[in-house]
Each structure stands twice: as structure tokens, then as C-alpha cells.
């Protein structure tokens, strides 16, 4: 199963942002079940009513007729979906929260970065970590169904590059979990770093109070 949780996997047309139909067509061509979460575009009330005009004509019907896709409006439990053993890949804009959630569950990422730090995150995952394939880049990018099919096939194959990506993603996920684990009185690196951070803040505050009291009494 593929998970796509983003309102940003879009095309820019006529000053409106709509989901890229090439993506869903590529999913359907590959015959991979998928969940696609769509939210109101940037600039609109994220808690407001979702408008059908933001979707390509016939988009929902094509997904429904395929019997392999689920379109979810506004919100879905992303982490729970990523935790499911059937989730083979995560199509993401590569924001850091999504990256952390995906990799913590050992799920390879298909990247479509847009802005801010997202392209840098995608590049790091592709070049240094080996857990991501970049499908497209930028708000105005569009993709053809055949491109999507090839990327999905590559990422979800059990051997070759897909298998290697999965192995690396699982390894990174285990390291992330170990960093948050406490066993036998020993804390993982993230827990220890947080303890050190809090201790530094408390120590600095105490030192400032001491100096302040010294000045006042002097």
C-alpha cells in the first residue's frame, strides 16, 4: 500500500492548486492500493469545508471506480497508517515532521519537495541516506502517470534498489527508536540529549539568579 498525505502534491493551474491526476493514474496503472489525503490549499482555511472545485473533474470518481484507492479529505492518522505493515512507501513533500514519522516506521519515501527546507531534506535522503527517490520538485511541477508507475515500481520492488531502500529505512527506524529508549537505567541518545538540554537551562537560570542576588545584596 502507498500513503500520500499532502495537499501540496499539486499542480498550479489558473491560480488554483489541485491534486496532480498523473499521480493517482500512476498508482492505478501500477495496481497498488493507496490512501491519498487532500487538504485545502495554502491560503485557504485548513479547518474549513473542502471544496470539490479543488479536485480535477472526475477525480474522486476515477479513484472510487478503481477499487484500489481511498481519498481522505482534510485529515488522516498519518503515523498509524505508516505503522501498518502493508504500507510500502510514503509519497511526501519531505517536511521534517513527515520525514521523521516515515523513517521512524522504516518506510521508504517518494519525494516531491516544494519549498523551505524540503528540497534539502529530500536531497539528504536521496544522496546520503539512500531511503528516498525524488519524483518531482516545486509547486508548478507536474508528472505523467508513466513516471509515477516507474518510481512506484522501483521503490516497492523487493530486490534491487527498492529492497536496499527498505533495508536502510528499517535500519534508520531502529536507530531512531533506540535513541528514545530507556533500558536498565541507560537512556538513548535523544533522551540523554534532552536531559542535558534541560540541565543546562536550569543551571543557567540558577547562575543568573545567583548573580542577580549578589548584585542586589551588594
UniProtKB/TrEMBL annotation:
Gene3D superfamilies: Glycogen Phosphorylase B (3.40.50.2000). GO terms for molecular function: UDP-glycosyltransferase activity. The keyword Amino-acid biosynthesis does not apply. Residues 1-10 have a biased composition (Polar residues). Keywords: Flavonoid biosynthesis, Glycosyltransferase, Transferase. GO terms for biological process: flavonoid biosynthetic process; glycoside biosynthetic process. InterPro entries: UDP_glucos_trans, UDP_glycos_trans_CS. Residues 1-24 are annotated as: Disordered. Belongs to the UDP-glycosyltransferase family. This is Uncharacterized protein. It comes from Rhododendron williamsianum.
Amino acid at each position: 500500500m502507498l500513503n500520500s498525505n499532502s495537499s501540496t502534491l499539486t499542480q498550479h493551474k489558473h491560480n488554483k492548486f489541485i491534486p496532480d491526476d498523473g499521480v493517482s493514474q500512476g498508482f492505478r496503472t501500477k495496481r497498488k492500493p493507496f490512501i491519498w489525503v487532500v487538504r485545502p490549499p495554502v491560503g485557504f482555511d485548513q479547518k474549513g469545508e473542502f471544496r470539490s472545485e479543488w479536485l480535477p473533474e472526475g477525480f474522486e470518481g476515477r479513484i472510487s471506480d478503481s477499487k484500489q484507492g481511498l481519498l481522505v479529505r482534510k485529515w488522516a492518522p498519518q503515523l498509524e497508517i505508516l505503522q501498518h505493515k502493508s504500507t510500502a512507501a510514503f509519497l511526501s513533500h519531505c517536511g521534517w515532521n513527515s520525514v521523521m514519522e516515515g523513517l521512524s516506521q522504516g518506510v521508504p519515501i517518494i519525494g516531491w519537495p516544494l519549498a523551505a527546507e524540503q528540497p534539502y531534506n529530500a536531497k539528504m535522503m536521496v544522496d546520503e541516506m539512500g531511503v528516498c527517490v525524488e519524483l518531482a520538485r516545486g509547486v508548478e511541477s507536474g508528472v505523467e502517470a508513466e513516471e509515477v508507475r516507474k518510481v512506484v515500481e522501483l521503490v516497492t520492488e523487493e530486490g534491487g534498489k527498492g529492497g536496499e531502500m527498505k533495508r536502510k529505512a528499517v535500519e534508520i527506524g531502529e536507530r531512531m527508536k533506540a535513541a528514545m529508549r530507556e533500558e536498565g537505567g541507560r537512556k538513548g541518545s535523544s533522551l540523554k540529549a534532552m536531559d542535558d538540554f534541560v540541565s543546562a537551562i536550569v543551571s543557567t537560570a540558577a547562575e543568573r539568579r545567583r548573580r542577580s542576588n549578589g548584585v542586589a545584596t551588594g
